[in-house]
Each structure stands twice: as C-alpha cells, then as structure tokens.
Amino acid sequence: MLDLGVLAAAAEQVTGVLGDQPAPDAIEARRMQALSLAVHIPIVCFGIAFPAMILFVHGLYLRTGEAHFKALAKRWSKVALTLFAVGVVTGTILSFEFGLLWPDFTATFGEVYGVAFGLEGVAFFLEAIFIAIYVYGWDRLPRRTHFLTGIPIVITGFFGSFCVIAVNGWMNHPEGFGVENGDVVDPEPFNAIFNGNLWHELIHMYLAGYIVAGFIVAGVYAAAHLRGKRDAYHRTGLVVALSFAALAAPAQVIVGDWAGRTVTKDQPIKLAAIEGLPTTTKGAPFTFGGWYDAENNTMNGGIEIPKLLSVLADHDPNATVVGLDTVPPEDRPPVNIVHYSFQIMVGIGTLLAMLGALFVLTLWRHKRLPRSKWFYRGVVVAGPLALVALIAGWVTTEVGRQPWIVYEVMRVEDSVTSSDGLELGFAVLVAVYLLLAVAVAWLLRRLSAQSPEREVVHR
Amino acid sequence: MAEICLGLIFVGLTMYAVLGGADFGAGFWDLTAGGDRRGGPVRGLIQRSMSPVWEANHVWLIFVLVVSWTAFPVAFGAVFTTFLVPLFLAALGIIMRGTAFALRGQAATIKEARVLGAIFALSSVILPFFLGTVLGGIAAGAVDVADPAPSNDAWTSLVAITAGVLAVLTGAYLSAVFLAGDARRAELPDLERAFRARALGIGVVTGAASIGALFVLRSDARPLYDGLTSGAGLAAVIASVAAGIATLALIWTWRFGLARWTAAAAVAAVVLGWWLATRPDVLPGLPLDEAASPDATLTALVISVALGLLLLVPALLYLYRLVLAGTLSQGYEPLDQQFRPTDGDGS
Fold first, then answer.
1. Tens digits of per-residue pLDDT, A400-428?
2. Could you tell me where the beta strands, DSSP code E, fall in A14-126?
3. Which of A9, A75, A155, B72 is the most buried (most CB within 10 A)?
4. Which helix (H) or strand (E) holds A180?
5. CB contact under 8 A, B74 and A17
6. Tally of CB atoms within 10 A around A375
7. Which ranges in B105-230 belong to alpha helices (H)?
8. What are phi and psi of A180, to 5 degrees?
9. Contact call for B293 and A111, based on CB within 8 A
C-alpha cells in the first residue's frame, strides 16, 4: 500500500540560483532538447550493442579463419566508427544544451549530478581512443592485440550509458542532497549516482540498445535475403544481429515489468498518466486507448479491462492505484502523450518479443532459419519499429516526469534559459538534423553497396 | 580542491587548444588549399592525419564542460546564459564539422568530397572563432554572475572578436607545424615544403596578432592586461613568446619534430598565463571559493577524474604512439586522386 501522506507533503522546492528572469521560450527549449535526444539516443543504441556484435564475429574469424567473418566484422567496424563520429557530435550538442537551455538546472544541481558526467567523460574518451585504434588497426596490429583493443569499446559503451542513465534516474528519483530554504545543500555525488531508478532504467536501456541495433542490422540482411543474397556473409550478418535482438526482446518484457512497478512506487503520478487513471482506485482497470480530458480530469472512451492495472502495477487485483486527482492540475504531466507513448512502446515491444521468440524456437527446434518470406519482411520492419518503441519509451519517462526537471524538487520552468528567439534556433536545429540523417543514410547505403570481398583484399 | 579542479579545467583547455585547435587549423588549410587538383595533395594529407585522432581530440572539450559544470556550476550556468548565441552557433559548427569530415572519408565522387569538404573546412574556421569570442568575452568581464542574461554585446566586443580571430590563427599555426612533420614522416617532400612555408607565414601573422591583442586588452580588459604584464603572468607571456620564436627557428631549419613541441608549448603558455592572470578568481569578480561546489562534490570529482586519468593517459599515449609510428595511417593519396580510377580498390 502507498502512503498518501508523503505525496500531500511534497518535498521543499528549489527555484534555482541564477536569478529570476522570465522564461519566454520554455516550450521551444523542451522541443530542442527532445529533438536532440531523439537524434542521439538511437546512435547510443549502436554504441551499446554494436561493438559486442562486431567482436563476436571477429572472434569467429580468429577461431575459423573464414574470410567472410573478417569481411563482416571489418565492414561493421567501419559503420560503428561513422556512427560513433555522429554520436560524438550529437552528444556534444547535448552537453552544450545543459548550459544553453537549462542553465539554472546545471547551476543549481551540477554539484550533485555532475560527477556522473565526469566519469562519463572519461568513458567517452577511452571509447574514442580505442574505437580509432580498433578500426584503423585492421591488418596493421598483431591479430591478438587488435582483437583486445576492441574489448574496451564494449566496456566503455556500457559504462558511459551507466553514467548518463544515472543522471536521468536521479532526475526521476532525486537523492544525495538536502534542501534548506530553497537552496541545495550537502551534495553526496555517489549517492546521487546510485539512486533508486538507476538499475532498472540502465538494464531497460541496455536491452533496448541490443533490440534496436540488433533488429536494424538484421533488417539490412533480411532485405538482402529477400533479394536472394543468401551467401555465408549475409547469413552470418542476419543470424548474429538477430540472435542478439531475439534474446534481448523477451527479456525486456520482464525488465519492463520491474520498471513499471518501481514507477508505481516512486512516481505514482507518472504511472497515473501512463495509464490514464483520473482518480485513485482500488482494483484499477487497465485502459486501452481513450482520450484524457484535462479540464474535467476524466478519461473518455477507451477499452477498460477490469483490475488489470492493479495486477500489473502491484501484482494484486485489489491493489489501490494512485490517480491524477491526488495532485493539483499544474503538477500533472500531459497525460495523453504519456499514455499513448507507453501503449506504443508496449505494443511494439510485445510484437518484437514474439518475433524474437519465433526465431529462437525455429533455430533451436529445426536447426535452421525460418523459411517464410513473411518472417524476413517482419525483420525488415522490426528495426524501424524498435526505433519507434525506443523513442516512445523515452517520451513516456521524460514527459511523464513533467512538470518537474528534478522530480518534485525543481520545476522545468524554473530551470529554463531566459533567452527568447529559441524558435529560430529550433528551426535551424531541425534543418541540421534532417541533413545529418540524410547524410548518414546515404553513407550507410554507400557502404552496403560495396562488395564484401573488398574488405578482405583491401589493405 | 577547488584549485585542483580549476587546474583540471585549464589542463583540459590547453589540451583542447593544442590538439583540437590543430584539427580546426587543418580545416583552415583545407579551405584555403585551392581547387580540386591543386588542393588535392593537401587535403589528402589532412584526411590521413586527422582521421584516427580527431574524435579523441574533440573529447577534451566535453571534459572541460563536465568538469566546469560539476566544480563551478553557477559560473557555468552564467557563462552559458550570457553567451547563448555564439555557443549555439559553435554547437551547430560542431555537428557540421564532425559529420562532414567523417563522411568525406567515404565519399565516392569528387563532387561529394567537394561539398562535404567545404562544409568541414568552413565550420572548422567558424567554430574556433565563436569559442574564442566566448573566452574573450569572459576575459573582458562580460558575465554578470548575479543575474546573467543573454547578451550580444558580450561576444561582439573588441576583446571577444580579437580572441576569436586569435583562436582561428593559433589553430592554423599549430596545424601547419604538425602537418609539416606528418608530411615528412609520410615522405612527401612537396607537402613538407608547402606546410613549412605556411607554418612560417602564419607563425609570423599569429605572433603579430598576439602582440596587437595585448594592446586591445590594455584598453578594454585592463585587469587581465595587468595580470599578464606582471609577476607570474608576465613570465608565462615571455615563455610563450620564446617558444613561438623557437618554433619559427626550428621550422626555418627544417626540424619539425621538435617544432611540434615548442609550438604546443607556446599555446599552452598562453592558456597558463590567462589562468595565472585571473587567479584567484574563476570569472572576473567571482572568487574561487565562492564559485566552487561543496567539498564533497569536488573530492568525488577529483577522485573520479584521477582514476580515469590512470586509464586515460596510457591509452592516449598508446594511440599517439601508434599514430606517430604510422601504424594506423592509411595509405596517402591526394584527395582528388582517390576518385580517378573508376571504382577500384583505391581509397
């Protein structure tokens, strides 16, 4: 059961140290941040998952000496380097935005969460060093050394996301500081890093990285399969990428349940927004679809499944689930965005888990790949769908955090820059990112058009 | 602790000014190399030299940012509020430069390489200019820490513009010295001569501009000028001038290997001098102990970074050793020549 008294007496709030200039462009700032994250996060997925996939194939090459393994690992490592370059620049934009868009958030709380980014900077540095050595080291470093230089890329990719997720977890579950008269006091940086949201968010995102990168890469080779390219090179690309994704997708369902129950406990209003639950209810139903009316705090339409929400949230059909009415309207997030993002994520996640399970079962029972064309078409679509689910998941957790930048401690509007004219900046940023997307897509097509033999003879 | 953190920031700034600056300078030479045929060799060398290292060099900027906002959050917030416009433009430059450079390595036709190269080279010149205006604006005392507001006067003052121009020139100078050395190691005597001439020319220009900048500081940023012309600040300035002259002499006598170090030392001495002249303030008018985060944060940061450096320093040394030994170098080819053979295995 939840202690509603805690909610009623919310934590003391902080308005920031940088003075109190009006913030005319808060919405534009949020759009810029959301756009920049939506561009960066998919690239992060490749940073998390791709190096492990590359090293796996590289290891197969070292064990068997088969040329097609080398060709594939080398080709993938070039793609990884290019995506890393894009990640370097889009990641830099994010760190600029900490100051440009949210100066008062950083000025007020940098002393609490900043150390996590210090560590992330180190991880990022090591990643940049070793990815250069690894990718440019093909055919130049001794075989064993070369393989070993790939391992730090895998580790730093994980550790870097650990640090960043730690900060996001902290924003949702702030710990490691006190508030006195509206000022932040007694920062405990390591307690802030190991906050209550860290582990489930990290593992959820880590698996998401494997699902997104795995299905997108597999989609390339599934499309090739449909065009009749079924040699060892293309088959390996398909099986390795798909195996990573197919194992991660069902596991994600379990981690998702863990994440959901933590949100129920720690951020009940976010859960209420996710589920579109206007009033606190015992034995709450699960609402599929529907439209939330913020003015009257009602949920209109939608299909209700009795008691299911209580089961999902607390594993108990008669559990009480906190509704939106427990906080004043200005403390509620935009419910419809959160509600639909969540349903999109869960819907796609379920489909992907089924696709992954089908692949694993076929491989295990029949020792062969599925034969149906529809399976391969499904894999081609799965990549983009996984991307949609990824973004929908982040929208759920980040829009669900509103109106807080530090949950129940600092409001977004108190942290945003006092600059106006951000519309122009937003428009320019949209244009630049569109160009970036076109350029990267063009490059990847160019790479995949080259024959794989080139990687083996090419020195 | 606060001193150590400020020291870390200045170490990061120095590394970024030297290594990142040289990469920007490479863009400057790329931009001014001339047409496809005439500029092909220069661009080929730049592509070859920068490819394995530019990402690691760029991370110093991120290092500076994260240490700043952790150790001196209020100063960081105030600076980013005040310099919204140039920092936003610099951020756009960062996206353009990095992506265009990475993609140019994969271009398949001279036309593609031309467009991507132009974006890379132009943004390499614009980016250090804007970053320089921010540093100049900070030095001129344009940040109101108590109640910061976005200001265009802050980055368009004479001091700021001067700093922007100096940032571009310094990068070009470092880059010319480094590339002359790279050309020698790649056994390309024509390029060696070309970059030697560039290094000498831009070295003289940069030196003259630096002296001019001192006069600008004298009239518009008096406290910094006083700091740089007395005591430890003066020593750093003299060291920088000496290193600059030594570099010119070394280049004149074709000793590029040593010149690499003296050129870097000249730039490092300027950053060091700036630090010595600003001490004990973090920003003009903001004393260190007022600006610094509580000790718990600073200790955690220093421990984290120190542990990180234990891994980072050997890794960086390994990378630069491989690069300088030519192990990671791809075969050199003038950029325009890469597209001559019709889709061979040439690149």
1. 898 888 888 888 888 888 777 788 888 88
2. none
3. B72
4. strand A178-180
5. yes
6. 17
7. 110-139, 153-156, 158-185, 189-220, 222-228
8. -130, 120
9. yes
User: Which residues are B218's β-sheet partners?
Assistant: none
Cis peptide bond N-terminal to B280, omega within 30: yes
DSSP summary character for residue A182: T
- Cβ neighbors of B89 (< 8 A, separation 6 or more) are B126, B130
Among A81, A93, A419, the residue with its CB nearest the CB of B84 is A419
DSSP A406: E
Can the peptide bond before residue A51 be classed as cis, meaning omega within 30 degrees of 0?
A: no
What is the reported pTM? 0.88
Could you report the per-residue pLDDT of B303-328, keeping only the tens digit for each?
Answer: 989 999 999 899 989 998 888 887 77
Cα B152 to Cα B173: distance, rounded to the nearest angstrom: 29
- In B70-80, which positions are buried (b, 16+ CB within 10 angstroms) versus exposed (e)? bbbbbbbbbbb
CB distance A135 to A80 below 8 Å:
yes
Q: Looking at the DSSP assignment, which residues form a beta bridge with residue A185?
A: A178
ipTM of the complex: 0.86
> What chain B residue is nearest to A23 in terms of C-alpha separation?
B149
Q: At what angle do helices A26-64 and A67-100 cross, to 10 degrees?
A: 160
CB contact under 8 A, A137 and B328: yes
B chain contacts of residue A459, beta-carbon cutoff 8 Å = 331
Tokens of B80: 């980013």
Radius of gyration over every alpha carbon of chain A, rounded to an integer in angstroms = 23
| Side chain identity, residue B235 | A
The pairing of strands A303-305 and A286-288 is antiparallel
Query: pLDDT tens for residues A265-306?
Result: 888 889 888 888 888 888 888 888 888 888 888 888 888 888
Cα B63 from Cα B309, distance rounded (Å)? 12
CA-nearest of A50, A86, A88 to A210 is A50
Contact B200, B251 (CB under 8 A): yes
Task: Scan residues 242-301 of B and list those with Cβ closer than 8 Å to A.
Answer: 293-294, 296-297, 300-301
| Interior/surface letters A288-313, b for 16+ CB within 10 angstroms, e for the rest | eebebeeeeeebeeeebeebbbbbbb
Dihedral angle over CA of A102, A107, A109, A110, nearest 10:
100
Quote the pLDDT of residue A285.
87
pLDDT tens digits, residue range B169-223?
Answer: 999 999 999 999 988 888 888 889 999 999 999 999 999 999 899 899 888 888 8
The encoded tokens of residue A207 equal 């698996």
Tokens of B115: 């467009």
8 A C-beta contact, residue B94 and residue B67: no
Residues with Cβ within 8 Å of residue B228, at least 6 apart in sequence = B214, B217, B234, B236, B237, B273, B274, B277
A167, A3, A392, A90: which is closest to B62 by C-alpha? Answer: A90
In this structure, how many other beta carbons lie within 10 angstroms of the beta carbon of residue B153? 10
Inter-chain contact A106–B102, Cβ cutoff 8 Å? no
